[in-house]
Write a structure and sequence with these properties.
This protein has two domains: about 5-150, Rossmann fold (3-Layer(aba) Sandwich), CATH 3.40.50.2000; about 165-335, Glycogen Phosphorylase B (Rossmann fold). It has helices spanning about 20-25, 25-35, 50-55, 75-90, 100-110, 135, 140-150, 165-175, 200-215, 225-235, 250-260, 270-275, 290-295, 320-325, 330-335; strands at about 10-15, 40-45, 60-65, 90-95, 115, 130, 185, 215-220, 240-245, 260-265, 280-285, 300-305. The protein is α/β, with parallel strands linked by helices. The strands form two sheets. The chain has a six-stranded parallel beta sheet. Strands 9-8-7-10-11-12 form a six-stranded parallel beta sheet, with helices on both faces. Helix 9 links the parallel strand 7 (about 185) and strand 8 (about 215-220). Helix 9 packs across helix 10.
């Protein structure tokens, strides 16, 4: 396959992934699509939270929300959304989501060129299917998505994750965080499951130490459903903090993370948001594999203790959570001390 096979492409649909972290890791591949088709109109189809991540984004022109929990649920909802896509007359569908549903959506929308990995039994629905070889399975997720495009002859872009806040969003964060010149972000959640989460009392210990050591404000972040984790850390801290867990939109979360001079986090969507926005990061890994999902950047420290059962990739730990129990507050503080901290702009 070569770019010449796509010369008539002017309207492109990108089916994004369903998780914020994975979606951030598709942005280098989005950059390659933009570089290969600079004059094309690029639309991203994504679930609500991911759609917000890309509304706006410099590498796409438009976002269409695919909401399986409401109007697009079930076969009838999928058909309804496919009919909506059909009216847009897309020339090319790039399917970063690996599910059968993504290929069925593009097929039903009669998009003539459908590019994606041959996963989930969907090969017959793709016009340009790419096999997932042993090499792809070992790649970092950003390279996994780039490899799909490269094997179709689509190359270009910076190869780096990219997000951008609007000026209004930056002003929102400046006003919200005006009490301190330097902020440390603490991100104790992980939407995938509890196996990825470090202990709240140790997050609190790290936060108190950094607040004193750096004369910093402490900001607790988190998504919907992570309010209790944020409260657990806040109640365990001696220092005051600003607890925003569950209290921001995706775009507001981006803006406050961009103001952080240091971000301490589990392997999670906000971790990848922070990487794309250039924040110094201490990332804690236990049940997951940093080889494939580490935050990309040159000012990042991974804290991980080898245990026999990790990485298990499970949502919840069936035993003693040894991978996270082994990480001490001192380990995290040592990693933070080795970073180049970012002053407030």
């Amino acid at each position: 396959m070569a770019v010449s096979a796509f010369q008539s492409v002017s309207r492109i649909l990108i089916r994004s992934t369903n998780w914020i972290g994975d979606a951030v890791m598709t942005t280098p591949a989005m950059g390659a699509v933009r570089a290969a088709f600079p004059d094309a109109s690029i639309t991203v189809a994504a679930p609500p939270a991911v759609a917000e991540l890309f509304s706006p984004h410099p590498l796409c022109d438009r976002v269409m929300v695919f909401n399986k929990k409401r109007e697009h649920g079930g076969l009838r909802g999928l058909w309804r959304f496919a009919r909506q896509l059909d009216r847009e007359r897309f020339d090319l569908a790039v399917l970063f989501q690996n599910a059968f549903e993504a290929a069925a959506m593009a097929f039903l929308a009669r998009i003539p060129v459908r590019l994606g990995y041959r996963t989930d039994g969907r090969g017959l629905l793709l016009t340009h299917g790419v096999d997932v070889g042993p090499g792809e399975r070992l790649l970092h997720h950003t390279d996994y998505y780039l490899s799909l495009l490269e094997r179709a002859g689509i190359r270009g872009g910076s190869g780096r994750p990219r997000l951008e806040c609007t000026e209004a969003e930056k002003e929102y964060a400046r006003r919200l965080l005006s009490a301190h010149r330097f902020w440390v972000g603490i991100n104790p959640g992980a939407a995938y499951g509890s196996a990825k989460r470090w202990l709240p009392e140790r997050f609190a210990e790290v936060a108190d130490t950094l607040a004193s050591r750096l004369s910093a404000g402490i900001l607790i972040t988190g998504g919907p459903g992570e309010e209790d984790i944020g409260r657990d850390i806040e109640s365990a801290m001696r220092s005051p903090c600003l607890n925003l867990a569950g209290g921001t939109t995706v775009r507001q979360l981006m803006a406050v993370i961009e103001r952080c001079g240091l971000f301490v986090t589990n392997d999670s969507g906000p971790m990848h948001v922070a990487a794309a926005l250039g924040a110094p990061i201490v990332a804690l890994f236990g049940s997951t594999d940093p080889t494939t999902t580490s935050p990309l950047g040159d000012n990042v420290r991974i804290v991980r203790k080898p245990v026999h059962c990790a990485p298990c990739l499970k949502r919840s730990c069936p035993t003693d959570h040894a991978c996270m129990e082994a990480i001490t507050a001192a380990d995290v503080l040592e990693a933070a001390g080795s970073l180049r901290l970012r002053p407030a702009s």
